[in-house]
Amino acid sequence: xxxxxxxxxxxxxxxxxxxxxxxxxxxxxxxxxxxxxxxxxxxxxxxxxxxxxxxxxxxxxxxxxxxxxxxxxxxxxxxxxxxxxxxxxxxxxxxxxxxxxxxxxxxxxxxxxxxxxxxxxxxxxxxxxxxxxxxxxxxxxxxxx
Length: 145
Fold this sequence. Notes:
Elements: H1 8-57, E1 64-69, E2 73-79, E3 85-92, E4 98-99, E5 102-106, E6 117-123, E7 126-132, E8 137-139, E9 143-144
Antiparallel strand pairs: 1-2, 1-5, 2-3, 4-6, 6-7, 7-8, 7-9
């Protein structure tokens, strides 16, 4: 006697294989998405740091420029000779992103910083380090914390 059709065991096996594959693909997509948004946020932060340095070197309005880093936002500002701060732009980080709290001030005309800094931008479990030296701003590669 010849039987046609699918047995219950075959159906269970195909279902198990498909769910395993979809779980693996979904996990990789989430990981890739986290890395993409972390990279995007780091590039945006490096851009605003470069703008602060450029504006300071141009001595725009005779002021110093800087970026205040808070846990979930950054603030682009200028300082006059009396240390009065004028906020030029505030930006919240993307959800899940955490910054090292610090303040980076670029001196007018030279664009240098008083001390070198390393800023950590994290989106758990990933991390990007942004190094600010006297003469350069360097963004590192994505690492795992």
